[in-house]
Structure to design on (379 residues):
């Protein structure tokens, strides 16, 4: 049966359609238009949006957990994100795992992707294995400090070659090109991200022809190269800002701790609205809140006091982006839906358009999620 969502404020990629109707059939968007001149066929199931915004479901390409449980420990943790409007999740795996643990976690994620209980789980974001060991939480337990070793990484590549959408890496790691070439040989569609790195712009740019097109949590866990104390150096952040082709992931927490609000606005001005990706980077870590962070509720910390991801969902990240960046409803849907979908190669979702998958959410002006529709099914 066709579903008609009526009296909707439709959020398109770069504009809005007020008081609109949208049609869904067999999990696909089949049409839309203004209510006043778009007839509704008889026999439709009607969902009255009552003036709520209707936009594409969020696509969170970088999140590890629901803030409490890692997805590989409890795949149903993706439900938490689904309730908050995220209709596509890439489960992030971190560099603290060894080869066997990575392979085991990938197997669990692969099994969960086939389960009806994890309908929004769609792949893996590898935050590792070869990042810079100087950066990131829990770096005391990094089994990948040594040389890039094919015997260690090939089992990981074989276990997840088809479900890993993004491989995060530090371009400055010695022999990293061998790893990149092996990944591309197994999966030509693989995407790379510069992650936990102090690479020079030239080292970053050298991997762009191989598919490096994302900056992992931009301005977080990145180094700087200063050759003279009185001169500011250029490093990863400058490379991401400079290169138009690279998308910038941003963690937008309530206090502007991961990324200062002024920096958020600066990155937006430099990159433009079509190269910003909001991520939650939700992590599971129960370290104590260090001094100076009293009252912070949406960030995790490890036991050394290092920031360890967030407790965010993308609806809250969107709300924070409105506050810190002056972004509109149209803007934040682009940051949290369209841009991340395109960055990882999804062309069937992330926007309201005829023929796209009917992943939709109904939200109010504060981005509070009132209804989620996944592949045309009301949840």
């Amino acid at each position: 049966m066709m579903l008609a969502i009526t009296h909707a404020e439709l959020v398109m990629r770069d504009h809005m359609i007020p008081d609109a109707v949208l049609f869904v059939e067999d999990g696909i968007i089949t049409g839309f238009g203004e209510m006043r001149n778009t007839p509704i066929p008889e026999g439709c199931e009607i969902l009255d949006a009552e003036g709520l915004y209707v936009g594409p479901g969020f696509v969170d390409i970088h999140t590890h957990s629901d803030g409490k449980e890692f997805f590989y420990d409890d795949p149903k943790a993706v439900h938490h994100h689904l309730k908050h409007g995220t209709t596509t999740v890439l489960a992030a795996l971190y560099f603290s795992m060894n080869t066997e643990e990575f392979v085991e976690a990938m197997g669990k994620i692969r099994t969960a992707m086939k389960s009806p209980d994890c309908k929004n789980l769609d792949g893996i974001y590898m935050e590792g294995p070869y990042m810079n060991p100087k950066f990131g939480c829990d770096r005391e337990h990094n089994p990948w400090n040594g040389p890039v070793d094919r015997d260690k990484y090939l089992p990981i590549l074989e276990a997840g070659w088809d479900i890993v959408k993004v491989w995060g890496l530090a371009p400055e790691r010695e022999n990293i090109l061998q790893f990149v070439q092996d990944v591309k040989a197994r999966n030509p569609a693989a995407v790379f991200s510069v992650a936990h790195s102090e690479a020079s712009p030239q080292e970053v740019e050298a991997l762009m022809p191989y598919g490096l097109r994302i900056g992992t949590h931009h301005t977080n866990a990145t180094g700087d190269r200063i050759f003279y104390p009185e001169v500011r150096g250029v490093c990863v952040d400058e490379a991401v800002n400079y290169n138009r082709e690279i998308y910038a992931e941003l963690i937008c927490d309530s206090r502007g701790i991961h990324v200062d609000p002024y920096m958020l606005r600066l990155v937006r001005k430099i990159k433009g609205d079509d190269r910003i990706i909001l991520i939650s980077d939700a992590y599971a870590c129960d370290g104590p809140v260090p001094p100076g962070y009293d009252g912070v509720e949406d960030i995790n910390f490890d036991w050394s006091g290092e920031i360890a991801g967030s407790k965010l969902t993308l609806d809250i990240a969107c709300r924070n982006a409105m506050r810190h960046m002056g972004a509109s409803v149209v803007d934040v849907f682009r940051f949290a839906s369209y841009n991340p979908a395109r960055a990882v190669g999804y062309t069937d979702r992330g926007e309201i358009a005829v023929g796209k998958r009917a992943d939709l959410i109904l939200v109010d002006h504060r981005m509070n999620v009132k209804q989620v529709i996944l592949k045309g099914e009301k949840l």
